[in-house]
Amino acid sequence: MGRVVLIRLLQTFVSLLGMSLLIFMLVRASGDPVDLMRTATTTDADLANIRATLGLDKSLPEQYWVFVSGLARGDFGQSLIQRRPVTTMIGEALPNSLALGGSAFVLGIGLALVLGVLAATRRDSWLDNGVKFLAVLGQALPGFWVAIVAIYIFSVHWQLLPTSGTGDPSHYVLPVLTLAFFLMPGMLRLVRSSMLDVLGSEYVKMARIKGMPERTVIWKHAFRNALIAPMTAAGAIFAGLITGAVILENVFAWPGVGRLLVTAVSGRDFPVVQGITVMVALVVLMINLLVDLAYAYVDPRIRL
């Protein structure tokens, strides 16, 4: 097992290095940020001084070396627009994204697991049909539309909850419920289909023949073996929540990483875009590693 972990860590390092090069080149290809700083009175000499100050007058290999060496020290550089350290800006926005995404993840995925299992064990019942309708409805409705309707009903019409921003727990209700509703449908269908496959397997039939309680058969034997595919999807969902809630963060004026990324992209703020993208790539790679390790715990056959 230790050898597998070492190999995966090496693969993660190589992948991160390749992603850093790809991110660096794509961001540079988006345009020159100095052009956005041009005013009616700006001269070519002023623009040259700005490029020299920001280090944009160096060759691309030199800029990439500065970028990578900074990553190795945990230094993502300084924002071209706000002139603040990128790590500070990400550090201010990341807790808000984690609070929103983590709460929605626990609620949405938890409900999806429970409802998916219950729907599979009561196939073609009213509960199963209701879960399938909920899954189709959740996948058909756009997340931003659900967010706007929720704001209109609960904030504008009934005036029960705040419309935007952060603060007391009431500010979390609408964003968390909306994001959880957005996460739940796909996981619902995946858990249900995985459970149906496992419930028809021979070892589940054998457990029932032995007289084991139905609850033990479902939650100990069937559910554990049906978790492989949902765990993969859940890992990808959680990693994507850091910046995947961009639309909802803008609708609810939530000061998270997604909103910071949109602002940085529109302003061609190279260091901020690079820093956020590398951070997300690192999170995705680490979560994939943790999910692979969790496979061995859920299914002992994988350890062999």
Q: Gyration radius, to the nearest Å?
A: 24 Å
Query: Helicity, in percent?
Result: over 70%
The CATH H-level superfamily of one domain is: MetI-like
Through-space gap between termini? 9 Å
Q: What value does the average pLDDT take?
A: 80
Major sheet details: none
Question: What descriptive keywords fit this protein?
Answer:
mainly alpha; 0% strand; MetI-like fold; single chain; 304 residues
Mind explaining what this structure looks like?
Helix 4 runs antiparallel to helix 10 (228-244) and helix 5 crosses helix 7 (170-199). Helix content is 77%, strand content 0%. It has 14 helices and no strands. It has a domain at 90-267: MetI-like (MetI-like fold), CATH 1.10.3720. The chain has 304 residues and is an all-alpha fold.
Strand and helix map with partners:
Elements: H1 2-29, H2 44-54, H3 60-72, H4 86-121, H5 126-140, H6 143-157, H7 170-199, H8 202-209, H9 214-225, H10 228-244, H11 246-251, H12 257-266, H13 270-298, H14 300-303
Helix pairs in contact: 1-13, 4-5, 4-7, 4-10, 4-13, 5-7, 6-7, 7-10, 8-9, 10-13, 12-13
Task: Quickly describe the structure.
This protein is mostly helical and 304 residues long.
